[in-house]
Write a structure and sequence with these properties.
Layout: E1 2-4, H1 21-35, E2 38-41, H2 44-53, E3 61-64, E4 87-91, H3 100-111, E5 118-122, H4 138-149, H5 151-154, E6 158-161, H6 166-175, E7 178-181, H7 190-197, E8 202-205, H8 208-216, E9 223-226, H9 231-243
Parallel strand pairs: 1-2, 2-3, 4-5, 4-7, 5-6, 7-8, 8-9
Helix pairs in contact: 3-4, 3-9
Length: 246
């Protein structure tokens, strides 16, 4: 019997879950650690997190089995983007740890300058951030309120899209000048590798999970890090990318 754990974001962002669910999830994982033969995680950071939950030495082996991507050959480079202006793509569900609020703050700062660009946000329930109905998730509601407050500037730059299928998501990845990932927590960070597999460079927050994948797959030349807690840092990384036409 093997338990598969993708992330433990309930430890950090309980508002993403129904009341009582984080406590139940913690108890379930503690039980798995003592009753399963093995528990798999996606990263070294995830292994450290899950072992910290154990109340005693786990019976189960905790193994890291990372997600896989197509390895890029030296001849494969990012295709020339035809978009005018350049586009940043953020593929993420509207949840607290995905940090749409921080990205919107950075976009507003940059949009007040003279460099034209667009940001496409895609993912489950993403359109709610641009809507007029209050949201139960307090952090996502901050993002919605910020968008409403600065709609005059942001509506010209930010669009909310739900990709209808994998083909449309693939097209968004390939057409983007950069994929941007300001998330503050990940169990692994699959969109980073998805972007690279489509030949698109990445801007992402400097969290251990992203650094681990960049090191594992030797992607340093494809990725630029920023401080996801600092909108100025996000905006500066975007500005550097806009000046880099690769």
């Amino acid at each position: 019997v093997v338990g598969l754990v993708h992330d433990l974001n309930f430890l950090h962002y309980p508002e993403n879950f129904a009341p009582g669910a984080p406590r139940e999830l913690r108890r379930s994982i503690q039980n798995w650690l003592q009753s399963a033969d093995a528990v798999t995680v996606l990263s070294e950071a995830g292994k450290e997190e899950i072992l910290a939950l154990a109340e005693k030495t786990p019976r189960a082996r905790v193994e890291i089995i990372p997600n896989a991507i197509k390895t890029l050959g030296q001849e494969e480079v990012a295709q020339q983007r035809a978009d005018e202006p350049p586009t940043f793509l953020y593929p993420a569900t509207a949840l607290a740890h995905k940090n749409h609020w921080g990205l919107l703050q950075a976009v507003r700062k940059l949009a007040l300058g003279e460099i034209p660009f667009q940001v496409i946000m895609t993912g489950s329930r993403i359109d709610e951030i641009g809507g007029n109905e209050p949201l139960a998730n307090a952090t996502v509601e901050k993002a919605r309120q910020f968008y409403i407050e600065h709609r005059k500037v942001l509506a010209k730059t930010v669009s909310f899209r739900t990709a209808r299928d994998s083909d449309e998501l693939t097209r968004l990845y390939r057409e983007a000048h950069r994929v941007i990932l300001p998330t503050q927590y990940e169990g692994f960070g699959l969109p980073l590798l998805e972007a690279i597999s489509h030949g698109t460079r990445v801007l992402c927050s400097s969290i251990p999970q992203f650094h681990e994948q960049v090191d594992r797959y030797e992607l340093g030349a494809w990725v630029d890090f920023f401080d996801g807690d600092d909108p100025d840092s996000i905006a500066n990384a975007m500005k550097r990318a806009l000046h880099d036409q690769k």
